[in-house]
Amino acid sequence: MVNHLKDLQAIAHSFNEIGAFPDEAVQRADARVKAQELRAKIWKVHVMTGADIRHMRDRLGISQSFLAEVVNMSVESVSKWERGEKKPNGAALRTLNTLDRNGLELFTE
């Protein structure tokens, strides 16, 4: 895959070395490249069904109320997810995926 952003970053560094490009612009280019590299490493969130959430809870040995506390949602929301009345989305879905992938230890001190 062609990475034009990295090409621009290299050009910015070259121009900066001869005084034709400001340090701040080089720093912005470096930050953009770093963000792009990090974005490529972030794993994709997968949709979780009610059965998936229940299975995760059972595997972790936690109650609906404890899960609700971890994902900062109401017990009613967790219950509706598990019954298939609603689907988790946004930050709650990312948190559920993280919990499923990494376990409770990630959320403890």
Task: Describe this protein's structure.
- The chain has 109 residues and is mainly alpha-helical.
- 68% of the residues lie in helices and 0% in strands.
- The protein contains six helices and no strands.
- It has helices at 4-17, 23-41, 50-60, 64-71, 75-83, 90-102.
- Helix 1 packs antiparallel against helix 2, helix 3 (50-60) packs across helix 5 and helix 4 packs across helix 5 (75-83).
- The longest helix has 19 residues, at 23-41.
- The protein starts with a helix and ends in a 7-residue tail after the last helix.
- The mean pLDDT is 93.
Outline:
By secondary structure, this protein is an all-alpha fold. 68% of the residues lie in helices and 0% in strands.
Observed structural traits:
109 residues; mainly alpha; 434 Repressor (Amino-terminal Domain); single chain
Write the layout of secondary structure elements.
Layout: H1 4-17, H2 23-41, H3 50-60, H4 64-71, H5 75-83, H6 90-102
Helix pairs in contact: 1-2, 3-5, 4-5
How would you name the CATH homologous superfamily of the largest domain? lambda repressor-like DNA-binding domains
Fold-level CATH name of the largest domain: 434 Repressor (Amino-terminal Domain)
Structural class: mainly alpha
User: Spans of 5+ residues with little confidence (pLDDT < 50)?
Assistant: none
By CATH reckoning, the class of the largest domain would read: Mainly Alpha
Radius of gyration: 21 Å
Q: What is the count of distinct domains?
A: 2
- Total of helices: 6
Helix content: 55-70%
- Kindly report how far apart the N and C termini lie: 40 Å
CATH level-two architecture of the largest domain: Orthogonal Bundle
Reading the helices and strands in chain order gives: HHHHHH
